[in-house]
Design brief:
mainly beta, Methylamine Dehydrogenase, Chain H, ligand-binding face of the semaphorins, domain 2, five-stranded mixed beta sheet, 40 strands, disordered N terminus, disordered C terminus, binds 2-acetamido-2-deoxy-beta-D-glucopyranose, Semaphorin-1A, Semaphorin, transmembrane
Length: about 650
């Protein structure tokens, strides 16, 4: 018996939400590192084509165009004495005895670069994109060890805000983690040691306000209670906040410390159940300009390492910080509430209240209210992907509404593009990007120019945010993509990116983002009639069994085979990247026309068709046409005798 079997390599059982489309991108622009870079920092300025990547003893200045990447490498080696000392001390890991670039940030016009320098951190200034020099300028700068950790495995976060740099250092070994203001014209400040319990930092963000002095910075981290009992969860996800106007306390109280620091607990899990994700790994914030409104996305894991994403309202967080009682403090505040963002120069009465408040701030850093996610539960995302990094974007759609798109990097080097609306999570697509599959380590998004930069230990790749050409040539395919960056141009009959400056009142592009419904295209009747011309397959001999492949485009559609002049339809024998029709009991797979039909959004559309002809000619020649189609999509063909 001759069997042709097509097996889909990527066939997996999909659980939970799944990406509707899957794209494999192996084209430029991409950059390959000469050696693996297991820790990468990134700096990208909106509107530019240049990405700065900090690696081991090197700063990569990568300039992208649509066709290629031009790279320039700035050496940033450790001094030999630091390396020797590091190796002699048998520090955490000898591999870490080098200069890993952990900080690449622009503060005003100063480009600050800091590295681990083999256990004794150093900072430089990057000048003219080429030269590293000592940091100069009028402002103050903290010791480099407050800005960069001594080893890259100790996670740190740096955020420029208002001409100052804020640095958060995670705790390792005997070091308490701290948040500091480390550079700029404002006073250098820090958190008190007792305020944070072994923090591991996950992110930081500026929270804008209509009045500048009310601007705040949120820090995202996870605390770890070393003395927790075995039956207790030792991790707690946190948000800490300070005001950018903070100038520290008075000589007797908190002289070098923030006086506006509060922290709160963040929950991520189903309601009040035990199923909580307490370890926040990363966080991003989307805010509207000058408004204290927006959304925060936190990436969490639980004790078993499963990752989920929870969304929070910035207004909820802001309300908690402004109104909540302080944990363990039951007296009423009297005058102004402690920790408010206020302009300097208090009146004498204020000054007295201020001293009292400093006392409260010193001993009661935690608020009582707990922050819970919007929609109560974690976002409904595919469960078979471990998410390693997230970025987010706000897109103005053609209905004049803003939509949120999340980009989730996975441990397999994939990126999921997700539309998040209040009602729903819709997984627009999954990109497989890399030659060498490895976790996504870092991403940077440029909303202005419309680019996403994705880095693994081996490669850095750039993707367009509006990747509309991949969605197909029909209105229905364009609309069902539910991609807020793309709309159907009725006049030109093309799926196109919404152009900059698009006028939502006079524009003619169409979209439907709130549900998978393409009735707006008004082409249902035409779709029903559409037929493909069948490819002819000549079958030799009675005992030859043929398998017919139908490429799966949308993973949200139902694929089936139908035979002409026959009321029956046949399920896929295998599914995955192909819906394969093969011999099952009573299937007359010998002669006739077989059509592969995909049903989505209530419409059935024909994808491919084959005509099987039974005559004496050679089979393998005509079968090549099927293989040509399938080879494209990484399908293995086995010929079993
Ligand atoms: C940077 O470029 C400017 C103008 O080309 C030059 O005057 C300056 O010396 C350069 N600085 C360094 C540190 O190379
Ligand atoms: C940054 O710029 C602001 C406003 O231009 C200025 O007040 C501040 O001193 C600058 N900071 C540094 C560190 O140069
Ligand atoms: C850590 O856990 C122990 C045991 O439950 C508890 O007594 C202690 O108060 C916790 N520490 C903090 C700072 O919450
Ligand atoms: C859009 O077009 C309308 C009508 O021509 C005009 O009144 C409006 O100002 C335009 N909006 C923008 C943002 O340009
Ligand atoms: C799609 O939208 C149209 C118009 O809003 C509506 O009449 C129709 O019932 C919707 N179809 C589905 C499948 O929801
Ligand atoms: C077809 O298969 C049957 C059962 O496996 C076998 O008995 C028969 O000889 C085969 N015929 C040909 C022409 O190979």
């Amino acid at each position: 018996m001759n069997y042709f079997i097509l097996l889909s390599v990527l066939a997996t059982v999909v659980t939970g939400k799944s990406p509707r489309l899957k794209f494999i991108v192996h084209e430029p622009p991409r950059f390959h590192f000469n050696k693996p870079e297991n820790y990468i920092s990134m700096y990208h300025q909106e509107g530019s084509d240049t990405l700065y990547v900090g690696g081991q003893a090197t700063i990569y200045v990568l300039t992208f165009s649509d066709k290629k990447v031009v790279d320039m490498q700035i050496p940033a080696a450790s001094d030999q004495t630091a390396i020797d000392t590091c190796k002699a001390k048998a520090s955490p890991d000898e591999m870490e005895c080098d200069n890993f670039i952990t900080v690449l940030q622009k503060v005003n016009d100063t480009f600050i670069v800091c590295g681990t320098n083999a256990g004794s951190p150093r900072c430089w200034m990057l000048v003219n994109d080429t030269v590293l020099t000592d940091v100069q300028g009028g402002g103050m700068i903290a010791p480099a060890s407050h800005i960069s950790p001594p080893f890259p495995s100790q996670k740190s976060i740096n955020l420029p805000a208002d001409g100052s740099l804020y640095s958060a250092m995670s705790s390792v070994g005997g070091h308490t983690g701290l948040i500091r203001r480390t550079f700029g014209s404002q006073k250098l400040l820090k958190t008190e040691n007792v305020w944070l319990l072994n923090p591991q930092f996950a992110g930081a963000s500026i929270i804008p306000a209509s009045e500048k002095y009310k601007e705040e910075i949120y820090f995202f981290f996870t605390e770890f209670n070393k003395t927790a009992r075995v039956d207790e969860e030792p991790h707690r996800a946190r948000i800490g906040r300070v005001c950018t106007v903070d100038e520290g306390g008075i000589k007797a109280l908190l002289p070098e410390s923030f006086t506006t620091f509060f922290k709160t607990r963040v929950m991520c899990g189903a309601g009040n159940t035990q199923q909580q994700y307490n370890n926040m790994k990363q966080a991003v914030v989307l805010t509207a300009q000058d408004k204290r409104a927006g959304v925060m996305y936190g990436l969490f894991s639980n004790a078993w390492g499963r990752t989920v994403v929870c969304a929070y309202s910035i207004e909820d967080i802001d309300r908690a910080f402004s109104n909540s009682k302080l944990k363990g403090y039951s007296t009423s505040f009297g005058g102004t509430r402690p920790g408010m963002c206020v302009r300097k120069s208090p009146s004498p009465a204020d000054a007295q209240n201020n001293v009292k408040n400093l006392g409260i701030m010193r001993y009661y850093p935690e608020i009582e209210d707990v922050i819970r996610p919007v929609g109560v539960n974690p976002l409904d995302l595919p469960t078979d992907d471990q998410i390693t990094h997230t970025v987010a974007d706000i897109v103005l759609a053609v209905n004049d509404e803003h939509y949120t798109v999340l980009y989730l990097g996975t441990d397999q080097g994939k990126v999921l593009k997700v539309l998040h609306t209040i009602q729903d999570v819709f997984i627009i697509s999954q990109y497989s990007l890399f030659h060498n599959e490895g976790p996504v380590l870092n991403m940077a998004i440029d909303s202005q120019k419309g680019h996403l930069y994705v880095g693994t230990a081996m490669e850095v790749q750039r993707l367009p945010l509006a990747d509309c050409r991949r969605y197909g040539h029909t209105c229905r395919e364009c609309i069902l993509s539910r991609d807020p960056y793309c709309g159907w141009d009725k006049a030109r009959r093309k799926c196109i990116a919404i152009p900059p400056g698009y006028n939502v009142t006079t524009g003619t592009l169409i979209q439907n983002l709130d549900s998978s419904n393409s009735s707006i295209c008004e082409e249902a009747a035409a779709l029903k009639l559409r037929q493909t011309s069948p490819r002819e397959i000549v079958v030799k001999g009675k005992n030859t069994t043929v398998f017919l492949p139908c490429p799966v485009h949308s993973f949200h559609a139902t694929y089936r085979w139908e035979k002409d002049n026959c009321q029956r339809n046949y399920p896929c024998l295998f599914s995955g990247d192909f819906c394969v029709l093969g011999p099952v009991v009573n299937t007359p797979l010998k002669e006739g026309v077989f059509r592969c039909m995909a049903t989505e959004d209530g419409f059935k559309v024909e994808v491919v068709s084959f005509r099987l002809v039974n005559d004496g000619r050679l089979l393998s020649a005509s079968f090549a046409s099927i293989l040509g189609l399938s080879a494209l999509l990484a399908v293995v063909t086995l010929w079993l005798h």
